[in-house]
Design brief:
single chain, alpha+beta, 6-stranded mixed sheet, 24% helix, globular
Length: 130
């Protein structure tokens, strides 16, 4: 079984122009997917609304995975997401993530905490903005 990882998921969701959002989500996230970011839970539909919003804000970016571990159906990583917004400003966030895989290798659950490294105060909630 092939498993997804956060680099592949974020690349498809945010950094691959022209890739349909539903197609990208179906590659990496199970139908019962849930995510908690900085204490706020979102179901799959709410998560996709968040990504749809980001797609209107993000012009380009990159994902750098610093640490990554998986054991059984569990996954953890520490990564930095850098985005260049359509207005030309840059936002960098370090993310600490714990997840669970569904039996088919897609994410079933992700819980993450974000740390703003660069960006405006208004971008502090970019990790969960809708």
């Amino acid at each position: 079984m092939n498993r997804t990882d956060i680099h592949a998921a974020l690349t498809d969701l945010l950094l691959t122009p022209g890739l349909d959002l539903d197609e990208a989500a179906d590659r990496h996230f199970a139908p019962d997917y849930r995510q908690r970011t900085d204490g706020s839970w979102a179901n799959r539909d709410e998560f996709l609304a968040h990504i749809a919003h980001l797609r209107t804000v993000v012009a380009a970016g990159s994902v750098e995975v610093h640490d990554e571990l998986s054991s059984g159906d569990r996954y953890a990583d520490r990564h930095t997401m850098e985005v260049i917004k359509i207005d030309g400003s840059t936002v960098r966030m370090e993310v600490y993530l714990f997840g669970e895989f569904a039996p088919d290798g897609r994410f079933r659950r992700v819980e993450e905490t974000t740390l703003m490294l660069e960006g405006a105060d208004a971008d502090r909630n970019l990790g969960s903005a809708r």
